[in-house]
């Protein structure tokens, strides 16, 4: 059943987007929320009819994204325990086991009284504040067994307890985290008092080409993970274009180990909005989107409030921003999958060419940049490219928020110039908790480095490449010597198989097949043939898939097997 | 323009893809998701090739030919990639060819044969198969044979625009569904069979053809569909003098392979026992067999009689909607030019 109120909300969403089909995802969420957190087939059919898409399209979308609960009964409190690598390193599996025991159910089950449903979920981007449980829409971070007790007792009484959590941060640059400790920094008045929107003011007096030139000159590279030069990307927009240009901010932040974008969006949303507004001026865009992962519901609210304030305050005169919530799909961090998702479709990557700059959202020229990338733009415009380049080495100009998680004493988000040494970064995070065994330094999808490879590592593109890894999203996961690499490899691989969109064969079937082989090895039932299968799979899948997800799992798993082969072999039956 | 594939010079038209150029030049590159009518999908990743001067493997279905391009389709890297894709498909699907309807015309089988794959090497015990969907009268769907190529989904939505099929779930659980996962027989599917025609494997098959003939036992006879005036081109798949399957002629206008449920599956009438095979004349309340000449002479004389007595407007003609355009044209010519009346109409007017 869709209530009149919900129908009205959905209709206004349909009018808000350039194409009404884009309202399908938010509409399904609205309908789910008012129907006991479950989407029945009847609900899906009604929503499809309201939006004007086929039942199959709506069903395909509802079953693609994990945040839609299709056909499944969900308890009053949906406990979602993140057990991805950063969470596992922080002890999440113990927390999960404790809850299972306490509630007398296994992950995937609901208690008999219908109060709790327990699920093991993928990275919630709380890597520095793990272990984390998402209860319905609310994050509870830094959990301990004791805190779990308090949480569950409170929920049993029908009360959602306060979810305030301590988190560590630090800044050696005072740009991206400048306002992190400032009270009410999300408010326009505070942001302006701290010098905000001066860069936009300046940009509005500049010729668009001059803005693009300045960004190009700064050497800013995309902070999402791929590290593509931002100015060059902007330069790909077709000349003499008569179609609308869309600007998209990729705030999907799904790469395990990465929780930097939320630091900006939650604590300094106007920095992102200002960056987008400058880019809009440079690229001639009238409409932008912030595609934010659905789990960041409260941050999306913060952004929407800030956008409203900016509009009322006259900061967004010729540019509007729609906040589009994802619904649980890692692959939507890939720009063409993200575009499909905004169009109200299953988040599956497109074939390239054409590239988004030529044919992106609704078939129009589109530029997609990461949150941190946009947030770096105001500095470049206000202070100039030369000032920006004073941070970091020449080929890795600028500053960056590194998210440190895993076995360190003070996991957190630390802003440093590019090229900071791994050792300095770890020292900022309180040092290694235990003996350093290895680290994954660019989000989960890059090659693992052993302790001896980390000694002289600097956190810039060239230094990482020289070590055979990548700077990626700047998410650093530190692993001490209590962990088994094959077990981490299996957990990592389960994540990719769970997140594979299913569009191309090598990723769809290959990811699952790699899980099967690793599972057999880790369970002690594996043979040399299983290890050979793993190596064949990850060795061949790299470069064979439609989008970078194939590479995202083949590279790290291959590195784990190569660098820690004795650990795998020790598990194998001879 | 010219390109070199495996050292052989191939003439290609600008705008062609490498896959199309190779096919035109008689060089086989395995491919599973591309179909001329459903377009490039980039999904199966089996049509990869190496191109001189380009880094890594290239997907030949989405690569436009360039003059002088040098393409290799059989390098160790290409074959290893193709073999992995086919191995994965064979290992994860119910690809037992023995009783499969598509044996002999299966594109996955062709690829496996080309790559010399007898059996997939991956054996893990959590791969299970379910029963196929036999709920619909003419089209049978076995999801365990599906390779997720997506041809049927594009065909259903963009070719015949029935908008029934789509993909649901994700990752290795991805499957095609009718509407919101209804059995095909309960769904809004009109059983046009377009999905069956484009399916590269045996996942979607024509129920009426099951068990009737192996693909190599049939010969194809092209004809025009007798049902309506559109004149769709049909390929009748004949085993002896029996039709065992009807498909739309891919390169035939106007339908370019598409058919409706009647054209594709309504062919039993030709074997009906009470089908008229010669003219009958009714005399004293009883029908008797007559020759064509006798029947036509009788009809002509009756028309003549009526026109002589009451004038040309005393007769009228209604052309059958099942006639082809040329027949309807001749019908109106007969009435206007010979009978001198404008009383001519067509039963599809309503």
Molecular structure report:
- The complex is a heterodimer of chains A (574) and B (350).
- Chain A is an alpha/beta fold.
- Chain A has five domains: 4-64, Arc Repressor Mutant, subunit A, CATH 1.10.10; 77-161, Glutaredoxin (3-Layer(aba) Sandwich), CATH 3.40.30; 170-389, NADH-ubiquinone oxidoreductase 51kDa subunit (Rossmann fold, 3-Layer(aba) Sandwich); 394-480, Ubiquitin-like (UB roll), CATH 3.10.20.600; 485-571, de novo design (two linked rop proteins) (Up-down Bundle).
- Helices cover 44% and strands 13% of the residues of chain A.
- Chain A contains 25 helices and 14 strands.
- Chain A has helices at 4-16, 24-33, 41-51, 55-64, 85-89, 92-103, 145-156, 188-193, 198-205, 208-218, 230-235, 261-267, 269-283, 297-312, 335-342, 371-383, 385-389, 422-428, 451-454, 461-466, 485-499, 505-522, 528-541, 549-563, 565-571, and strands at 77-82, 116-121, 133-135, 138-140, 168-171, 246-251, 287-292, 320-325, 366-370, 399-406, 412-417, 436-440, 449-450, 475-480.
- Chain A has a six-stranded mixed β-sheet.
- In chain A, helix 14 links the parallel strand 7 and strand 8.
- In chain A, helix 3 (41-51) crosses helix 4 (55-64), helix 13 crosses helix 16 and helix 24 (549-563) packs across helix 25 (565-571).
- Chain A is globular, with a radius of gyration of 23 Å.
- Chain A starts with a helix and ends with a helix.
- The mean pLDDT of chain A is 96.
- Chain B is α+β, with helices and mostly antiparallel strands.
- Chain B has three domains: 2-92, Ubiquitin-like (UB roll); 128-271, 2-Layer Sandwich (Alpha-Beta Plaits), CATH 3.30.70; 290-349, no CATH class.
- Chain B contains eight helices and 16 strands.
- Chain B has a five-stranded mixed β-sheet, sandwiched between helices. In chain B, strands 10-11-12 form a three-stranded antiparallel β-sheet.
- In chain B, helix 2 (76-92) packs across helix 3 (107-115).
- The longest helix of chain B has 19 residues, at 292-310.
- Chain B is elongated and about 85 Å long.
- The two termini of chain B are 52 Å apart.
- The interface between A and B is large, with 44 and 45 residues.
